[in-house]
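Summary for the steering committee. The consortium agreed at its last meeting that each partner would contribute one worked example illustrating the joint modelling workflow. Our contribution is presented below. We chose a case with several input lines so that the handling of multiple components could be demonstrated. No manual editing was applied between input and output; the record is shown as generated.
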Amino acid sequence: MKTAAIVGSGAAGATIARLLARSGEYHVVVLEKGQNLFSGLGGDVGEVRSAFPNDELGYVVRGGPIGQDTLLEPRSFRTSPRDGIRSHVGAVNNLPTTVGGATVHFPAKTRRFREVDFVANQLMGGSDAHPAVAGTTYRDWPIHYNHLEPFYAVMEEVVGVQGPARRARSGTIINPNPCESYRSTPYAMPPGTPMYSNLLLADAASRLGHHPAPVPTAVNSRPYRDRPACDDCSFCALFGCGINAKGGGIWQLADALATGHAELLAEANVTEVLWTRRGSSFHADGVRYIDGAGRSRVVRSDLVILANTPIEATRLSLLSGIGVVHPDEARLSAPQPTTTEPSGLLGRNIMFNLQTLVLGVVDKDIHPWRGRAATHTIDDFAGTGPTVRQFRAEVPRGGILELGGSVNPIDEAMYMATIAYGQEAKDLLAVSPLRRHLLALLMQGEDMPQITNYVDIDPDLVDVCGTPAPRVTYASHSYELAAAAYYAPKMLEIMHAVGGHGSAYPDVRVVAATLADTTYPAAVPSRLVAAGDPIARHVPTQEVPSSAHIMGTHRMATTSEGGPCTPYGRYWAFDNLFHAGAGLFVTAPGYNPTLTTWALSYWVGAAILTDVASRARFTATTIDDDAQTLQSVIARLDPNTMAARELRP
Amino acid sequence: MLTRRTFVAAIGATVASGLAGAASSEALGAQRAQGDVTAAGRQGGYFLEDTLTRPRYRTAAAICSRLLPTGQSAAHDPGAAEAGAVSFIDLFLGAFELPDTVADGPLIFLQGRFSGRNPYPDERRGAPSQGAPADELGGASGRPRRSVPLTPSRELAWRYRLYGREALKRTRAHPQWMAQLGTLNPTPPPLRQLYLDGLDAFESFARQLFDRSFHACTAAEQDLMLQACGDPAISASPRSIPEPPAPARTLFPYIVTHTLQGCFALPEYGGNRDAAMWRWLGWEGDTQPLGNSVYQPGAAAPGQGPNRGFGDPSVYEPQGSVREYRPVSEPEGTTGATTGPIAAAGLLRGLSRPQP
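What follows is the complete predicted structure of the assembly.
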């Protein structure tokens, strides 16, 4: 049996671990630098216990034992080399450091991208040589929606996604959301309980001609795979789930461990990929890591998969001598190829979702915290689609709107303390405009890829182990800023349309609505910011993006000039080194990235389990053919799913 | 009563950042070594109350009670005094030195799913049941609180936040990382020393101005001193009181932050006694395992009640015993005469503008 070393236990790592372990062909070693806060993993799922209370102080204010602690793992940031070595040190798009990764605390919105999102550059009149948006590296993906659809479908079942599309008696899929692309399967579960704040906003948007719909979410709406239904406890985004109703990497890890072919090394901080030269190519021999006691250890393996975040995967590669970024400004606008990384683009084209926030206050107590983080989204501002035929190039590509949003008592009190204290603060807390009366619309805007937005190694800063820290150099492109400016008034229009005469909720009225400054995360209540941990919220600069949707750096491409990885996630110069995760994204459509990360990880895992991953030349035809081969893995390893049944001839 | 002040500038980022956040450069510059905190702490027990002098504890309690004051009725309008916010601060500052009767480890993160305050749902009736789960957090009936065992790295980080560089002695952490703490890598000031110096400064300020201990001053006198710390404009005014000592000004945003945390955090952290502040807010609290979809009694079918006018009714078609059609919240009356559009709109204007 071969051995696979997988770095990271989040969305991507757990998916690959599950597949390789279930194949029976691999012994899988998952290395996770964070702590394991679950007991009973690998046994009966119903007996797995987490350590998570509904604890705002612990998890929102202190970041929890799951957060990336900025003292221990600092990062640096700047907008360009003109800022100097760095303009900020501390939290930069931090995601949790824990077994299960960011899926432990995420609010689990699991959106698919659409057909048009994979080919938007071409539809906008661009080509690989001449991107449709000047000053960007905008490109079409080498794989398309039709390739990925069965992988979206199987992952929705594996993790357990609730959503509105259902199967009619005739067998056809009825999807109440007209903005989504075609589906081969219904969701695993129907939508859970709607939040009142979401219904208010959805009603307003409907009356303006938009198409709000229940948001697909990896949270059980009914008992599923030995885990209970969500009870809408109100502690979802930023919190671990105390009752195991939230789907995530952890349950795939549990599947992997249950095979007996996988082991989990928690508190194992990988610092180097070990490799040797083999003729004209390179071969990964394993990884070196620092264990919880501070000892340096090695795992030898036949396969190495970097399934950590785009920022950490880049850092690890660069520290291992794979790729290079000479950060002098003159050389940044061109690739910098090396023998180990021939594209010269590793770390480049990092993308986030640009978040635009509109807040409203209503005159009724609407308990906006009751429920999950959001129960509805609106897709109308993500750009036209979903089919190629419906695409209109002149409409800006923004992103979905997440509805609702609220804060918990400590957060509200801390915000009030910036306005008043003493009795006046207490009076404000009694009124509670930010908890009882708040409505929010958050747009997750598409972010243009730019070669000058990149991750490299800070020349001075180190983490607690002495390992050099990553540095992010990033500035928004005018395209996404213009899209935000285009859609913000439309968001305000929805907010102003909430309640009142002619609505389904005539007793509710909006007393104020405003566009919150997207460049100032500290002014925004925390649950509205996807940034994750509390430390990330306090970044004292207006420049660091508040989104923790991290994409790019390991762009997949059909040639080694196009990006660091093949369409199957393999580093071009290596026969057995892979990236699996959002790093492979070519673009950053305005949708939450996790489901696509899941689907792509299954895709990469399937390529590893077939001979497809070794392929070095790609055409549209070979990818079409390969997709058939990869889909056979779904039928083999997840035969009892609706997705597998749809694939049978 | 304290009024709205421009102390936002001084307090904003720090308060928003909570105790774990990066300190302002001013706060960093104000670090001093005064007294041997560690030696005092090593005597065991809590920090302010048991190992240091009672006067400091009384000063801290007095400050807390002005920052979130008690209303006309302590029972119906409790404040930081009733919540025991100072006990919360005490447990936090002493988190690594608590006796094992108080907590089974450093009390930074509580461990366990259920507090025992909330019952299981009755799935059949869609209502709370009579059965409550066992308390997993501890802290009640003399049982020690359960804390998440910290990894060696996390323990080092939290010790550093409380003790400063003292925490780095005898560790084997990487020297370059240690050298960068507080320099290249911004860190908050050591909180234990911050409190010792700050509380002493409030005490000397009170004696200077009013010839009394801080806690013995009137509420108006205490408010004046706090205002002077929160708003530089006040002490700059020629007819106003003298400038407060720097350590008091440095402590001010931290004790504001910690007072609010002590009022609204889980009671197991030492404040929010008997969840009194949650009740005052009308908040359900930690909710598990009951949750809100069962807690909220007003069920509504598709297209009815709060579901009026929205979406494809079949989306919420109930299946089996699952409650997916039940809204988790519905509107309630306004929370009182103070819920005015003007107040809300005024706040929102503040929200949309970056603080200076």
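Residues 478-496 of chain A form the longest helix (19 residues). The first strand of chain A starts at residue 2 and ends at 7.
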